[in-house]
TrEMBL record:
Domain Non-canonical purine NTP phosphatase/PRRC1: from-to ranges: 11-173
Its biological purpose: Phosphatase that hydrolyzes non-canonical purine nucleotides such as XTP and ITP to their respective diphosphate derivatives. Probably excludes non-canonical purines from DNA/RNA precursor pool, thus preventing their incorporation into DNA/RNA and avoiding chromosomal lesions.
Stated name of the protein: Inosine/xanthosine triphosphatase
Keyword line: Hydrolase, Magnesium, Manganese, Metal-binding, Nucleotide metabolism, Nucleotide-binding
Length: 180
């Protein structure tokens, strides 16, 4: 194991996001002591981002806050959002990862949303609250999320975050290929 720990700062106190970050870094840096912590970092956007642009901006803002207020090797944020696309409404997440020199952006896959959920979101509700009501669950956003409910547990909010984080880490894993 590497003697110097790798410090990872997550721009959220949501345990799903912190666990996704921890698992991602443990997987990518197997022989390193990973110290992963969350901080309440404001997104600067609506609690329920309704566009791709707003969702991305929320993740960027959270990382900027972490960089300003914490000392770490990596700073990262995951921001879930929704939008209405040509093929229908969907939820997704943007992830932003930064160190002192560089920043990388990744995005999860789209999860199609039922029209009833989209309509509730357009009325000002948050996706987690809508899913809790539709599936009779409680605080699903800090568990499997809409993804877990709509895929019958085959995937989860955390698994979507992990995949997006791994993809966003590629410029840090292969800096010469990315011109870093």
């Amino acid at each position: 194991m590497s003697s110097k720990p790798l410090r990872v700062q997550v721009g959220s106190t949501n345990p799903v996001k912190i666990d996704a970050a921890r698992q991602t870094f443990v997987r990518l840096f197997a022989d390193t002591d990973i110290q992963c912590h969350g901080i309440a970092a404001p997104s600067g956007v609506a609690d329920q981002p309704m566009t791709e642009a707003e969702t991305l901006q929320g993740a960027i803002n959270r990382v900027a806050y972490c960089r300003k207020h914490q000392s770490a090797d990596y700073y990262l944020a995951m921001e879930g959002g929704v939008d209405r696309f040509e093929h229908g409404p969907a939820t997704f997440a943007y992830v932003v990862i930064a160190n002192q020199q560089h920043q990388s952006v990744g995005r999860s896959a789209n999860l199609p949303l039922p029209l009833v959920a989209w309509q509730a979101l357009c009325q000002g509700e948050e996706l987690g609250d809508v899913m809790d009501r539709l599936f009779d669950t409680r605080n699903i956003k800090q568990q499997g999320g809409a993804i877990g409910l709509l895929t019958n547990g085959c995937e989860s909010r955390e698994s979507a975050y992990r995949q997006a984080l791994i993809m966003a880490m590629t410029p840090f894993l292969h800096p010469t290929l990315y011109g870093e």
